[in-house]
Amino acid sequence: MYINVEYAETPITPIRAKANVPVEIDCPFTSMNESRIRIYGADYIRALAGKPIKDEEGNIIGAESLASLYFRGNDFNHTNKLRELYIGSSDPTYNNSQFTTLNLNENSPILEVLDLQNCNGLSGTLDVSGCTSLKTVNVEGTSYSSVDLPSSTGIINLYLPETINRLVLTAAKNLTNLTMRARGSEVDSVDNLTEIIINDSDYSNNINWMAIAANALSHLTNLQLINLRLAAITNINEMEPFVERKGILGDFINANGENVSKINLTGLINVTGNWSVVEKSTYKTEWK
Predict the structure, then answer these.
(1) Any domain includes 11
(2) Residue pLDDT, tens place only, 202-247
(3) Are 70 and 181 within one domain?
(4) Strand order from edge to edge, sheet including 143-148
């Protein structure tokens, strides 16, 4: 198998490649100056990254991301075998405001890792709903307001910016790491969240959906925590703000024509502190 790379208008250089063996392709320029890079045979590439990281013997053991290219135009629509795409930078001072659109095949069936961290020019909605093998999505430091994720249960790591206003996971069973942070911050922020829709959360993988919902409750317009299983609160009175918000927002008609509360909790919530039968009955009545 050969990978052909064309830098600007330089002659195409065929590079012989073997399965699962990293290949280093040298750029002939010290500066690209917005020159075009074309990769022929991209539909065979498993991972795409930047400058290789080598051990003392010169073996490639990793790679930096593509962030140093500071690219603007891009087309990853023909990378059907791509499993890993590293475009972002972990450096919070990284700035590429010209990179405003990711042209990715939305139905990349085997893409597992997508790293766009600190690409601050990206905004709006990132649609990766067709990438059913995704395990890690890192868009911290971007300006995305929502991410359309696949309905599969494979997502393990989800790193979001504080600009996210809509969080939807139709299958959250395997989610282990979730952050919503501003560039360079170590503290999560839910200040912009207005909608949370989570289905099938085991609550056992370090994600406290009830706590996240409670912190954002005052500005939520839609909260659907469906099939909670191991959710826990220390005091049953912690449910009262949810009841009050439920009364304020009322109901809506879902796609099946059913009336559904805009603050909707279903499943099991464990109360670790004391509670009375009357209190339990009160909240069970609110969410049947």
Answers:
(1) no
(2) 555 678 888 899 999 999 999 999 888 767 788 888 889 999 999 9
(3) yes
(4) 123-127, 143-148, 166-169, 195-199, 222-233, 263-271
| Residue in the block written with tokens 């370090």 | 206
Q: How confident is the model at residue 179 (pLDDT cuts 50, 70, 90)?
A: very high
Per-residue 3-state assignment (H helix, E strand, C coil) for 17-48: CCCCCCCCCCCCCCCCCCCCEEEECHHHCCEE
Q: 43 versus 144: which is more confidently predicted?
A: 144
β-bridge pairing 13-16 and 2-7: antiparallel
Contact 98, 119 (CB under 8 A): no
Same domain for 215 and 175, yes or no, is: no
Could you give the angle at which helices 240-249 and 209-216 cross, rounded to 10 degrees? 60
The verdict on 98 and 219 lying in the same domain is: no
Adjacent-strand bridge partners of 15: 3
The 10 Å Cβ neighbour count of residue 10 is: 12
Residue pointed to by tokens 């009262």: 240
Tally Cβ neighbours within 10 Å of residue 231: 20
HSE, CB side, 13 Å, CA atoms: give it for residue 183. 17
The answer to whether 100 and 123 have CB atoms below 8 angstroms apart is yes
Last residue of a domain, one of 174, 189, 204: 189
Q: Which of 155, 189, 223 corresponds to the end of one domain? A: 189
Q: Which domain holds residue 254?
A: 194-288
C-alpha to C-alpha distance for 194 and 114, rounded to whole angstroms: 25
Are residues 57 and 166 part of one domain?
A: yes
Tokens of residue 91, six digits: 């450096």
How many separate domains does the chain show?
2
Q: Using CA atoms, how far apart are residues 166 and 29, in angstroms rounded to an integer? A: 42
User: What b/e readout covers 206-220, taking b as 16+ CB neighbours within 10 angstroms?
Assistant: ebebbebbbebbeeb
